[in-house]
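Same chain as my last thread, 349 residues:
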Amino acid sequence: MKKIFYFIMVLFLIKSATLLAQEPKLVLDKPGNFEMINWGIYSNCIDCKITKAEETANYAQLKELAEQFKKNPVLQDIKGFTSKVLLFHEYYGNKSDQYGIPGKMSIQFCYYFLAQNNTVATATIEPPDFDILINQLWTPMCDNMGFRGSNAVTDFTNPKYDKKKKDLAAEKTHVFFFTPGKKENLAPGIDRYADETVIIYDDSRPDYWIPATVKEIFESWIEFYEYEPDLFTSEFTVNILKDQYSKFSEEERNMPAYFGARGDMPLLTVDTKVSEKQLMKANPLYWDKNRPRTDIQFLVFNLLKDQKRYEREAEEALKNQGGGYHKIRFMAALDLELLNNIQKLILKK
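reply #2:
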């Protein structure tokens, strides 16, 4: 009896593994819709204090932005998927750098496929999506070089430890980040970094990022670790940072910092030698505060410079019946003309 049971179990596992290994068969001819859904972009922004009138004005701008992306040929004649445009509240930067209503627009590609019973189903659980960050000067595409506040500690050994001072010191460090990589200006108000990260902005405004110096980053890190609860960790780390800092002359300390390192045990990966990744801070002066905060003034998303790669990936996805097929086609069709039209929305006052 046990042998029969084990035999059935083995057959079940083999069948399950086979089903999991199979890609769903895409249904490419079924028409789809394009709809925008508010997924808490206002209600989840607790500190924003957004009025109903501001919600209405901002939503109209977001709708206009979505309509610009809809001019992409893949979204003009939707077949093989339905597109949901979700609006989230997400903010990654510091409150001192914030203006406007921050958030994320996620264009989802809920592809159609044949289910096991040979009926057409829609992929709605974490479908492929294209994300646009809105009104955020710092984004996750940049490597942050700071710390966040922490919970209070009762068993500290460092007499200098003070939670409030440590949190304030952490806030000072959190303003620093490295640019994603080499910068390329595609058109007025459109930059691309590291052949991928695209930023659309108002080019009549001051720079959206400003350089940070070697002195700024070192002194902020040293201050932060001086309030570390554990005395040994505090002294050990501060000594390493001070030793590394001593290798910079007074002139060098006031120079812009780039990705690099000095010393045998570098804790901070910065140097004055120019590289493609520069240490920066968000520039609050970029925001035009004469404009209502409901306006869209800054956009960030990922779009590869190598458009041929998208074509290859689309062919491969179609061959393997991959669910990302429609998103890849969408990204391949995002050309400079469409980006220029989106940039005009940033300038609209």
